[in-house]
Amino acid sequence: MAWPTMTTKSQATDTKQSKRYEPASLTVVKVREHLAEVLNRAQYADERIRIIKHGKPVAAIVSIEDLKVLEALEDELDIAAAKRALEEIRRGNYVGWEDVKADLQK
Prior knowledge:
three-stranded mixed beta sheet
């Protein structure tokens, strides 16, 4: 299978973590035809593969390491949002349940 040429986004050092590549883009049909190779490239070559359907990117195949990083970032964002919400409550900037319930019954 002919893979698109990968281009670096930065001229960083050769460490795996400092390099970022433009993800390969493959159609659903190509992914289906070459699923084992696509998975191997994500797993062993740390490549990110965009899946294209009807000309638009709809999903991606990434390594489990990339997924863990994404999930950790989401967790950090969720924790930060919860802390902001708790601070708003401490300041008294909230609407109580009774007020919400009364508004819904109008």
